[in-house]
Amino acid sequence: MLKQVFKKAVVIIITAQARWVLKKYCPRIVAVTGSVGKTSTKDAIYSVLSKRGFVRKSDKSFNSEIGVPLTILGLPNAWNNPLHWLANIWSGLLLVLVQTKYPEWLVLEVGADRPRDIRTIAKWLSPDIVVVTKFAPVPVHVEYFGSPEEVFNEKGELVRALKPDGTLILSTDETVLALKDRSRAQNLLTFGFFRGADVFGSKYKIEYEGARGHRHPSGVNFSITHKGESVVVQQRGALGKQLGQTALAAAAVGIARGIPLADIAAALSEHSGPAGRMKIIEGIQGSVIIDDTYNSSPVAVNEALEALSSLTAKGRKIAVLGDMLELGRFSTTEHRAVGTLVATRTDILVTVGVRARDIAFGALEAHLPASSILQFDDAREAGIAMKEMVAEGDVLLIKGSQGIRMERIVEMIMLHPEERGRLLVRQDQEWKSR
Description:
Blueprint: H1 2-25, E1 28-33, H2 38-49, E2 55-57, H3 67-73, H4 82-97, E3 105-109, H5 117-122, E4 129-132, H6 148-160, E5 167-171, H7 174-177, E6 187-192, E7 199-209, E8 216-226, E9 229-236, H8 241-256, H9 261-270, E10 279-282, E11 288-292, H10 298-310, E12 317-322, H11 331-345, E13 348-352, H12 357-365, E14 373-376, H13 379-389, E15 395-399, H14 407-413, H15 420-423, H16 429-432
Helix pairs in contact: 1-3, 1-4, 2-8, 8-9, 10-11, 11-12, 13-14
């Protein structure tokens, strides 16, 4: 009880400080929301804008009632340390009282774990640009809402908060496009791999490197077109068409800011996305790991499986999938639906966690042989088994919700575990102690 009272007090104080800071320094704001790809999109936008001035972005997935004010104040998460929170509050007060250099632009990720999360933030945050990524039929965190429609309406509150002279940037996803009627903004840009998009992606291709017989995926390239002008973007070290989606969203923000398309392409080609999001990592025994361990949801898993399926591999395609959390009453059906897709996209399925057993059930129903399915209760147990079974040329997709800690499997089978601090998610001491 005392802990909850303290947390509420901290939220009230740092929110008040954040509001004062916005009034004092008047930065321009890009706010990113949606159900899939928010963090990757926020990071790509930062890569484009930071070439033209002083820009700050949300750290990791700072997108909550605590994360958004902390980003505005430029302060770290103090987790469960009251003294560190008091130090944060003091630092926030100094920022309000003492004039200092402050970012010209803030790139904020805004999420909704529970009802009214975004509505509360939208009461005091007035973005200059709002970017809405893809919506999922069954989004993560839906268990705290009455329906997926309630999640959609909650995220629509950010669109309502957009300044009238601002720019609304929407994915060409049909559900997302419906949000344009909720905005007062004078400017609209759409993005996607759809020819009718204002910022149009095409010619997506996976790149490989290595000698014949030992080739492995190294990245992707694709084209971005706006008003008849086209550029090519090359991104190394990660896979998936969703990389193109995040780049297109970032390009749309750059276009709204008047940045030349060639400069946008150069920034995006240099961009390296966050850890745990379809990252290519060398594995033991000459294997390749696709590390997508940051988080998981039905749409994100399906996209990752499509990326795995599209690869040319010398060995087996192995999907190592953990529980998808916070799906509420949709959990069983969504896990089984993933299993159905797995049966046609992979050679071997490895599940981790109690809920993921339904992925195995769905795969069995879709006629993936029982001999091609392994099931484990936790990530460490699965990692031990994977060390014994990985062979040369295998490609492993590893994905699950953050609470399942699938990065522990990657750590156990990566060729250079000494690089885990740089390459993997959740490597700070707070997470490592859990």
